[in-house]
Specification:
The chain folds into 2 domains: 4-206, Cytochrome Bc1 Complex, Chain A, domain 1, CATH 3.30.830; 229-412, Cytochrome Bc1 Complex, Chain A, domain 1 (2-Layer Sandwich). The protein starts with a strand and ends with a helix. It has a 6-stranded mixed sheet, sandwiched between helices. It has a 5-stranded mixed sheet with strand order 7-11-8-10-9, with helices on both faces. The longest helix is centred in the N-terminal third of the chain and has 19 residues, at 115-133. It contains 16 helices and 11 strands. The protein is of the alpha+beta class and 413 residues long. The chain is globular and about 60 Å long. It has helices at residues 46-53, 63-71, 97-110, 115-133, 136-148, 162-167, 170-180, 196-206, 254-265, 271-279, 310-326, 331-348, 352-366, 372-380, 384-394, 408-412; strands spanning 4-8, 14-19, 25-32, 76-81, 86-93, 186-192, 229-232, 237-246, 285-292, 297-306, 401-406.
Length: 413
Amino acid sequence: MNNYKLTKLSNGIKVASERIDYVNSFYLGFWFNVGSRDETKATNGISHLLEHMFFKGTKKRSARRISEDIESLGGYLNAFTSKEHTCLYGRGMQQHLEKTFEVLSDMLQNSLFNKNELSKEAKVVIDELHDSEDSPEELIFDKFESNLFSGNSLGYPIIGTEKNIYSFTRDDLINYIRKHYTAENFYIVASGCVDHDKLVKLAEKYLKITSGNKKLRRKRISEKVHKDLFIYKDIHQTHLIVGGTTFGYNSNKRAVSNVLSNILGEGSSSRLFLSLREKNGIAYHVNTFMNSFYDVSTLGIYISTNESSIKKAKKLIDIELDKLKNKKVTEKELKRAKEYIKGHVQMSLESTTNRMMRMGSSLLYFNKFKTVEETMQEIDSVSREDLLDLSQKLFKPSKITSVLIASKNYFEK
């Protein structure tokens, strides 16, 4: 039974819900189609800082009361910023939906952005930035994308730069909201024990978001040859990412990339896991990843190992990539990968959190509810020929770039 409902209000706000009768809770998200990709060099980091500042007090609530008003009812609030969207969200029991909706609406529309709070929160964000820089397993992913997407705002780090974070003023935040946090960019998404008509009435009651003057436009990614990046860190382990770009959400071929990633390095039966860890015992962390955006995805291999093993690990990776370029995968291996992916998709739907996140992403990227059946069909349609063709295109030397983080001692050898 399809329990998805979608209503577009007169001002352009979209209200979407999925009713799940066997739960007593809800998961509510306020989604905006804006993220670090929509920033400039001068404003990089402002979306993420705004996410923090929404929790620092409104005209009627202090930061402490924002938390207490929800946590005293057994619920919680949080938020996240990505490269293409921002989301404020809350969870609670069904009888507290209106209270959670009202608090989120208050945060969104009535935040004070007090100068002192802004100064304090900027320091918190700087600490967050330094933490990521001290964690090579986190830093390497940011550096991989900034290197891969150099010259495009998609390469900007979500957290921004220290210089920008300290420079943002209250007026900067307010002006950015007026420009980007408009009704056309706004989606209200809820999953769980929710009544759609009630959700629409709550939106009409509490939200006064106005329409914007222009549609969001994003700079397209241009293909270019990328240089490898080497970073010195005082660390024991060596970290490496090898990869490139592939199809984004706007392509029906994205499923091919997903299956290829799975065969290569997802799970304990993947090729890289068996080669590097099981057969050679030279890496604890080895896996592939795919990070998708509207018009492009990154597909890469991440590994961490000791300095003496990294060169051998890279050779083994190259061997596996060559195998995929020169020979079709077996029917058995293809079937295993498909079942693995489909199983994870279906199991993820047992969580109202994941269901709300899936709905929000679906609406922002496809402007509709993409059903699980559609996803399953896309996965099932992937052929051995598709994988061979993509491998030959994706794993060309000119398409591959790498980022290596190692100690200075490694580079001096």
